[in-house]
Automatic annotation (TrEMBL):
Cofactor(s) needed by this chain: a divalent metal cation
Family membership: Belongs to the metallo-dependent hydrolases superfamily. Phosphotriesterase family.
PANTHER family: PHOSPHOTRIESTERASE-RELATED (PTHR10819), PHOSPHOTRIESTERASE-RELATED PROTEIN (PTHR10819:SF3)
MF terms in GO: hydrolase activity; zinc ion binding
Keyword presence, Hydrolase: yes
Gene3D superfamilies, alphabetized: Metal-dependent hydrolases
The protein's name in its UniProt record: Phosphotriesterase-related protein
Alphabetical list of InterPro entries matching this protein: Metal_Hydrolase (IPR032466), Phosphotriesterase (IPR001559)
Keywords: Hydrolase, Metal-binding
Upper lineage: Eukaryota, Metazoa, Spiralia, Lophotrochozoa, Mollusca
Species of provenance: Elysia marginata
Amino acid sequence: MADYMRQDLTDGVGGIKCGIIGEVGTAWPITDFECRSLRASAAVQDELGCPVIIHPGRHPNAPGEAMRILLEAGGKARHTVMSHLDRTIFDKDCLLEFAKIGCYLEYDLFGVEVSHYQLTESIDMPSDAQRIQTIKHLLNEGCLKQILISHDIHTKHRLMKYGGHGYSHILLNIVPKMLKRGITQHQVDTILKQNPQTWLQFFK
Ligand SMILES: [Zn+2]
């Protein structure tokens, strides 16, 4: 698996190289195959210095466990994103405990304004307003350099062409709401520009 990943990053396909490893998919509990995938990602990240992004299983312990496996295999927290935290860690103390690991904390379901989460019915999907409140809490706790946001658009009905909010939702609707809720322009710029730029750089 590491050989495939390394080749995609260094040689690419038809001259086109990928710039990150991910999303590295994991379920809950994490399967043996997924452990191997995380360890292979860690080995290549350690070797090439590339960014990694992990998709956690739908359980509050899943992000921490995935990071533990990655770090024990040589991965780097500061260059790794944990995606989908919106639907994964709800308890504020648990969230701050997870943040101490030092990876990026991604809130990437902006625009998904449904309370029913069809993939795990025990989870109440937060609204955009609730996402912003959680981000504000993380900012107050000193996590500015760790926060990333996005839309995770993976279905046609979320594109503007099919009546969705499209890729401009954060810029058009979320940033103004963040500013109205007391998040500063400097913090917005760090989340939207500086943090992605830093994450996407190879560190070796
Ligand atoms: Zn994902």
